[in-house]
Amino acid sequence: MTNEKPVCVVVGAGTKYSSNKAYFGTGNDEAFMPEVRWGLGGALPIQFSSAGYSVVILSRSKENLIDLQNHISGELEGSCAAIECNVTDPSSVKNAFDEIYKKHKKIDVLCYNAGYAKTPESGKERIDNPIGGGLVENVDTSAFDTSYAVHASGLLRVAKATLPSMRKSGSGTFLVSGNTMSLRGGKGFGLNAPSKFAQRALTQVMAQEYKEYGVHIAHIIIDGAIDAPGLRRILVDKGNSAMIKQEAEKPGSMFLNPKDIADSFVA
Question: Which three-class secondary structure state does DSSP give residue 186?
Answer without folding.
Answer: coil
